[in-house]
Amino acid sequence: KYGQARNHEYYAQVLVAEKDTAKAIIQVAKAATLAEETNNNDRLLSALKLLSTIDGKNSAKHAQRYFVLNEDLQQKEREIQDKFARIRLETDEIIEENVSLAKDRQIFAGIAFALFIIGISVFIIINQKVHNQRLKFKQKQQESNQEIYNLLLSQQGKLEEGKKAEQKRVSEELHDGILGQLLGIRLFFSGLNERTDQEAISHRAELLEKMRDVEEEIRTISHELNEAAYEKVDNFVLSIQHLIKEVSEASHISINFDYDQKYSWNKLEGDLKINIYRILQECLQNCVKHSKCKNITVNFATTEKMLNLSVKDDGVGFDSYKGKKGIGLRNIISRTKEIKGNLDIQSSPGKGTLFQITIPVEIPIVVPKKLKSAEKAKETTI
């Protein structure tokens, strides 16, 4: 129908050209009816305009209808244009708003990123300060431990030196006092040998023999005490022995300490001696607190470039692969790492516990003075 309206209008135009107005009016009327049925407003306007031209009787009516329809279409077109204009305006406003929001988002993102960077920087600075404070505290703690240990060694060294000085004094008293007096008595009795009776001679001989025995015994004691007085005091070993003695007396646990006497333990570095002392202290405390043991064996052995420490107890033991590590055990592990050592813990329920610490260190070999004294005494006796 939409296309038929156009055909009827074109046919009417041909009839108008042939001056057949009556038939042309009928065709145009059909075109207008079809255009109105199909809502073809442009075709309807064209048909009404043609009718107002060829239909003289109804020309005013057709013209009026044409103008009303044309005005109505123009009004609708203006409304549509206004609507599109409003849509375009609203669209522009939305676009501008989106651009503004995008800029705001960029600003917020920049502020958030800046705050994030500042936060990370503050965290790093605070963390670095805390780390530095920890290092300073650890350094001060090590210095304090070194000072305490040196004081401990100094006190024990003074005690032992006092003992040695007293032994030396007793040795000199024995040698210069008693031995001299006995020698005078022996000479005095020798002068009495002028008596010729057999009983006096026999009695003097017995006394002289006994006094020579006493003299020899006092001389031996004097040499031993004097040798002991000149021996070097090993403060580190004495500290370990003192620690073991205190723990044993406080816990009533038998503790056996054995160490290699061919090595100069006192020549170890101060930090190494402190850590060994603390490791042994923690091991003994663990044995006392948790093992319920009756006997503990402590051994300090050495190889060519290694120091081997072991602490073994006959207590209840534990499963070394399970459970959390206590503060004491963590301290032992930390101190062992600090001196670049290796810790091996062997334990099982009911079979006791063995701590083995291996430390890489070079210890100078020394000849024990006790061996020299023994050899000298042997040569003197011979």
What is the strand and helix layout of this fold?
Elements: H1 2-17, H2 21-37, H3 41-54, H4 59-191, H5 198-230, H6 235-251, E1 254-259, H7 270-291, E2 295-302, E3 306-313, H8 327-338, E4 342-347, E5 353-360, H9 369-381
Parallel strand pairs: 1-2
Antiparallel strand pairs: 2-3, 3-5, 4-5
Helix pairs in contact: 1-2, 1-3, 2-3, 3-4, 4-5, 4-6, 5-9, 6-7, 7-8
Describe this structure as you would to a colleague.
By secondary structure, this protein is of the alpha+beta class. The longest helix is centred in the N-terminal third of the chain and has 133 residues, at 59-191. Helix 7 links the parallel strand 1 and strand 2. It is 73% helix and 9% strand. Strands 1-2-3-5-4 form a five-stranded mixed sheet, covered by helices on one side. It has nine helices and five strands; from the N terminus they run H-H-H-H-H-H-E-H-E-E-H-E-E-H. It is rod-shaped, with a radius of gyration of 60 Å. It has helices at residues 2-17, 21-37, 41-54, 59-191, 198-230, 235-251, 270-291, 327-338, 369-381, and strands at 254-259, 295-302, 306-313, 342-347, 353-360.
